[in-house]
């Protein structure tokens, strides 16, 4: 089996004040719709969907990856069943009984199901939505982990993700892992850190000009850029980072590298320039 051919579809995040956080993301993502969906507050705008519930701040309840092809989802389920426990999905976004979940060695919950809405397959979405915000789509999630090698083995062996790049220190120890689930450089990444936690999530837009427009839009919210603009080494993408009220990192990216099936995994040194080819890099460890 090749890569899963899935894309990050939605995330569920916990907060002590989920209603306030949902309101923030509604404005952040461009007058997104806020609705009650079971035990969740659902914030949706075009290809951007987040769910919020009460819990410990900064905790990811689950990340959900969606398929367009039923056979791809069924093949992945068969693969996963042979390697780890398969759980019932809990996301209210799934409309198909095929949806299922797994829990990785760090306790992160990942769900897989069929897409319930049309999604533009291109990187970025050049067509403007109706709001003042530029276009962008939810694209990847990043975990901090004390044992990134263990998580890498789980996602590659059990879930079929492909290795895109390693970041290695001078002794050869893995510091970061970038994993792909379709043609894009990474749909998930793992950074070595002192604790297991959510590191950030990211939206992909189409170009440098759209990053500028997002920065202009966020300035109307008096939202300050905390890192960037810059360009990552792995993935070669442009980026900006901001924080939400709970301190979660949010990335806006453009021009993410695409990957042919034949591309060999890359190796990068653990240094600031790897995280930002243009300047300051925020090393996790």
Determine and state the CATH class of the largest domain.
Alpha Beta
Low-confidence stretches: 125-130
Q: Tell me the series of helices and strands, N- to C-terminal.
A: EHEEEEHEEEEHEEEEHEEEEH
Taking all Cα atoms into account, the compactness measure Rg is: 18 Å
Overall CATH architecture of the largest domain: Roll
- End-to-end Cα distance, whole Å, is 34 Å
What is the number of helical segments per DSSP (H or I, 4+ residues)? 5
> What fold name goes in the CATH topology slot of the largest domain?
2,3-Dihydroxybiphenyl 1,2-Dioxygenase, domain 1
Binned strand content:
35-45%
Broad shape: globular
Major β-sheet, in short? 9 strands, mixed
**Helical/strand content category:** alpha/beta
Q: Mean pLDDT across all residues, rounded?
A: 93
Please list the strands of the largest sheet in the order they lie side by side: 14-15-16-13-9-12-11-10-17
* Helix share, percent: 10-25%
CATH superfamily of the largest domain: 2,3-Dihydroxybiphenyl 1,2-Dioxygenase, domain 1
Count of distinct structural domains: 2
- DSSP strand tally: 17
List the helices and strands and how they pair.
Layout: E1 6-15, H1 18-28, E2 33-37, E3 40-45, E4 48-54, E5 60-67, H2 70-81, E6 87-88, E7 100-103, E8 109-114, E9 137-145, H3 148-158, E10 162-168, E11 174-180, E12 188-192, E13 197-205, H4 208-219, E14 227-231, E15 238-243, E16 249-254, E17 266-269, H5 272-275
Parallel strand pairs: 1-4, 5-8, 9-12, 10-17, 13-16
Antiparallel strand pairs: 1-5, 2-3, 3-4, 6-7, 7-8, 9-13, 10-11, 11-12, 14-15, 15-16
């Amino acid at each position: 089996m090749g890569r899963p051919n899935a894309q990050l579809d939605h995330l569920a995040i916990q907060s002590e004040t989920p209603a306030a956080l949902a309101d923030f993301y509604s404005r952040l993502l461009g007058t997104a719709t806020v609705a009650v969906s079971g035990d969740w507050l659902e914030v949706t705008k075009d290809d951007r969907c987040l769910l919020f519930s009460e819990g410990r701040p900064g905790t990811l309840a689950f990340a959900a990856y969606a398929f367009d092809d039923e056979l791809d989802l069924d093949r992945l389920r068969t693969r996963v069943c042979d390697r780890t426990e398969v759980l019932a999905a809990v996301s209210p976004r799934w409309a198909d009984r095929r949806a299922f979940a797994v829990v990785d060695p760090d306790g992160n919950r990942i769900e897989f199901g069929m897409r319930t809405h049309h999604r533009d397959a291109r990187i970025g979405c050049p067509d403007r939505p109706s709001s003042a915000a530029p276009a962008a789509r939810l694209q990847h999630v990043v975990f901090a982990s004390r044992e990134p090698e263990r998580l890498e083995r789980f996602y590659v062996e059990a879930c079929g993700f492909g290795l895109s790049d390693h970041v290695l220190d001078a002794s050869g120890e893995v510091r970061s892992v970038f994993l792909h689930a379709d043609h894009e450089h990474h749909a998930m990444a793992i950074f070595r850190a002192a604790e297991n936690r959510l590191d950030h999530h990211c939206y992909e837009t189409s170009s440098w000009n759209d990053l500028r427009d997002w920065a202009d839009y966020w300035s109307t919210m008096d939202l300050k850029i905390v890192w960037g603009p810059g360009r990552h080494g792995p993935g070669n993408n442009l980026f900006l980072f901001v924080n939400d009220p709970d301190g979660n990192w949010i990335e806006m990216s453009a021009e993410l590298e695409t990957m042919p099936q034949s591309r060999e995994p890359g190796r990068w040194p653990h240094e600031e320039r790897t995280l930002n080819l243009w300047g300051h890099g925020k090393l996790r460890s």
